[in-house]
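Reopening: Non-structural maintenance of chromosomes element 1 homolog still failing for me.
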Amino acid sequence: MTRYGDEHRLFLQIMLTRKILSLSEIKAVLEFCHEKNRVPCNATKDDDSLTRFVSDINGKIVPFSMRIKHGVSEDDGQRFYALVNLKDNDLSKCATMFSGNEMTYFKKLVQQIAESNTGTIQSTEALNIASGLDNCRLSIGMAEDLIERWLELGCLMQVRASVLKLPRGTNRCATHFSLYCQRNHRNDGLVSLLVVVESRWLKNINSG
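Support: Ran it again with your exact input. Result attached.
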């Protein structure tokens, strides 16, 4: 392990505020942290150096149930780093609170949001999806109840009266949810879909 210095502490403070950064943002922040503390910046030289820098920070924060995790968007290959809470978050709680059929419905909603140009879904469309599910058809009333519960849990957000979207920070949700998938030997594609949604959000911000 290399020396843990003020550049690491400043980087961690920024991650605590931002929560998620693309690879290009990570490199810019690293340059800033090292320049601010007047130390050479070796962390941006190559992937191994960056990995060591992040590993040094993780060694300090893992005892507090936090970790900086690396991910790659399957949509465009964009790399990102997210500060995650290793304890179950709202989305992983969703996975343990709902049945397989209900989580299949949630995955379909996420898929529609990921494929839309606006990153949203109309409430009526969300309800119609429930009646068209293969082998796990849900009634409109059941779908309405599920959507209401997901809104209360923070798994979904209501933009306006009839429009739904996923909350910002779905990459963090994806990394949390991956812990649930690993523990329960599940890999149904939901994690990848969540990463796609967030990577598109990042792309819109960076190009705006």
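The CA atoms of residues 156 and 166 lie 5 Å apart. If you still see a failure, please send the error message rather than a screenshot.
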